[in-house]
Amino acid sequence: MEVEQDQLRLPTPPPILHAPTLRLPPPESTPNFATVEYPAPVSSVDSALGTIGGVERAAVALQNHVDGAPTSRPIELDLDPENRFFHTIPANVASTHNIVCKVIKRRRKKPKRDVDGNIVEEGIYSIEPVGIEHKIARFRAMADFQYYPDIPVNDETFLLAEAMSKLDVKGIRTYRLSPPSEDFPESAFIPPPAFSRHRLPQNFDMRPAFGTTIQTTESGVTRLVHAARSKTRTIRSIMSFEEHVPAGPEEVLLKELGREVPNAIEARLMHLLEERPVWTRPAMMNQLTPAEVKMAHANKSQCWARVGYTFSDGPFRDLIVRFGYDPRQHPEARFFQHITLRNPENVRIRPQPGMRALSQAHFSGTKPNTDRASNLSHIFDGKQVYSKIGHFQLCDISDPLCRSLIDSPDGVLDFCSSDINEGWYAYDYFEQIRQVVRRKWQGLLNGIEVTTEDCDDLLRWQCSKESRVGQGRRRAAAKATNALTGVAPRKKKGAKKAEGEAPTSEHGGDGEQDEQDGEESEEGGSGSGSGSEGGAGTPSQKGRPWTSKKPIRTAPWEKPKAKRSKAKQPETEAQLLSRLSRSARRSSVRAGMSVTPSASAIEEEQEGEEQ
């Protein structure tokens, strides 16, 4: 099929029309233009200018206006100048650079009309730039509430206001206060200068916020709930006196999550709780890979509440416990009790050789054969310290000495005590374990490996196998510490002994026996104190260790610290002169020089000679 050549040609483009260009007159030859946006239809320009104070007042306000600075004479719109109670509307003056144009419309005197008589020709328009306006006044504020009091014709207060506004001296002098009465007129109540504090309208729509949904609670109350809000759920906590433990997560949590199947990180934590029913949170985090740790931190608001519960008090406080498992009913749960140690010196531990390389290799993607130091922070082996924070479970302590004390059946109670320092162990036995771990751990922090001989004073405790629950408050910890350090316990100030009563010791013996005990304790117990942190510790039934002639070495970190001397007060002028005079007298006496006697001394000598 042949196509004609004219059909293949492109259409002719329309001619290019250039917009007309006009030049602005020079600024020196043009007046200063300003615009006032009047918020009402204008039928008379003079009347409209009168409501804003006239041309002169508006010109002064526009000329003296500076952006961001308050003005003493603003432009105000007064729609009722005769009413003194009318609240004016202030104008907002802003800077602008609009072009002022003069529009001219040319038309015939006799315009052309069609058959029906309608004007056909609209006219010819021409535009001429005149200058640039620099200020513009806009009335964007809302009108204030208006107050129209019902004032009588001859009201004294209103007549006084009229006389003061017109500077009528005669009217001011004729004003007299009306006699007091309970009939208060409206003119006695002075209205405020403004009723509303908000000048601009609030951008408020009668619609709920974006992203909210309407939900009905179980009680039938309708609430607006944000769909993307952070739903934080803390782990469920129970008290030690509650009989039953949670068997699973809360139904409210499962309803908010919208699923019953656990995700990957929750399944991993549940698997760890199946292997061991009680964990500390750092110990569980140490079992995870870096990717799993990151996922656990991202979902910490729901993953911990999804996998287990915790106790808010007692020996298993702050531990993650598997749902349905009650450590208070199983004696083997004593190995899951934890020991928390403080580091008052905040000693910075140095990384062990090769640990930094292992950490870098772990995060770089390689898998070294040995464990990282950060994965062993919950373990205490008595040889190395992996963290400056001591938080260990008894099952994670592998030191031979500590392990022998933990596995010993001595001191295990028949029930689980609710005391935070007991649990399945008697108080004295658990305190002995904690003090041994504490001494070894603090020794490693100071770079010293503590041996069994260094803990001889702690191992010689005669511990009680009874629980202290229900026995009241006992202050045997101070007695035990004093007996180990060779310091006599303090006596109460008000304690008095009866006449003829032999001085007895606190253990029931006489004074001689106390002296012998004191000598023995000085020979064998001059070493380290074993008081617990927080006022706990009962080394024996009466706070008394076994005596031994073997000297006990004191660890450097357990030696009493020297007290800091108080800052020396500045010496006054009188003290300085007194000190210099005493020094001069001593030096003169040593040199054999005679000291000139004072006048009072000479008079005393003369009186003595006369007598």
Automatic annotation (TrEMBL):
<dbReference type="GO" id="GO:0001003">
    <property type="term" value="F:RNA polymerase III type 2 promoter sequence-specific DNA binding"/>
</dbReference>
<feature type="compositionally biased region" description="Acidic residues">
    <location>
        <begin position="602"/>
        <end position="611"/>
    </location>
</feature>
<dbReference type="GO" id="GO:0005634">
    <property type="term" value="C:nucleus"/>
</dbReference>
<keyword id="KW-0804">Transcription</keyword>
<protein>
    <submittedName>
        <fullName>Transcription factor IIIC, subunit 5</fullName>
    </submittedName>
</protein>
<keyword id="KW-0238">DNA-binding</keyword>
<keyword id="KW-0539">Nucleus</keyword>
<dbReference type="Pfam" id="PF09734">
    <property type="entry name" value="Tau95"/>
</dbReference>
<feature type="domain" description="Transcription factor IIIC subunit Tfc1/Sfc1 triple barrel">
    <location>
        <begin position="35"/>
        <end position="147"/>
    </location>
</feature>
<dbReference type="InterPro" id="IPR040454">
    <property type="entry name" value="TF_IIIC_Tfc1/Sfc1"/>
</dbReference>
<dbReference type="GO" id="GO:0000127">
    <property type="term" value="C:transcription factor TFIIIC complex"/>
</dbReference>
<feature type="compositionally biased region" description="Acidic residues">
    <location>
        <begin position="511"/>
        <end position="523"/>
    </location>
</feature>
<dbReference type="Pfam" id="PF17682">
    <property type="entry name" value="Tau95_N"/>
</dbReference>
<feature type="compositionally biased region" description="Gly residues">
    <location>
        <begin position="524"/>
        <end position="537"/>
    </location>
</feature>
<dbReference type="InterPro" id="IPR019136">
    <property type="entry name" value="TF_IIIC_su-5_HTH"/>
</dbReference>
<dbReference type="InterPro" id="IPR042536">
    <property type="entry name" value="TFIIIC_tauA_Sfc1"/>
</dbReference>
<feature type="region of interest" description="Disordered">
    <location>
        <begin position="470"/>
        <end position="611"/>
    </location>
</feature>
<dbReference type="GO" id="GO:0006384">
    <property type="term" value="P:transcription initiation at RNA polymerase III promoter"/>
</dbReference>
<dbReference type="GO" id="GO:0001002">
    <property type="term" value="F:RNA polymerase III type 1 promoter sequence-specific DNA binding"/>
</dbReference>
<dbReference type="InterPro" id="IPR041499">
    <property type="entry name" value="Tfc1/Sfc1_N"/>
</dbReference>
<feature type="domain" description="Transcription factor IIIC subunit 5 HTH">
    <location>
        <begin position="189"/>
        <end position="342"/>
    </location>
</feature>
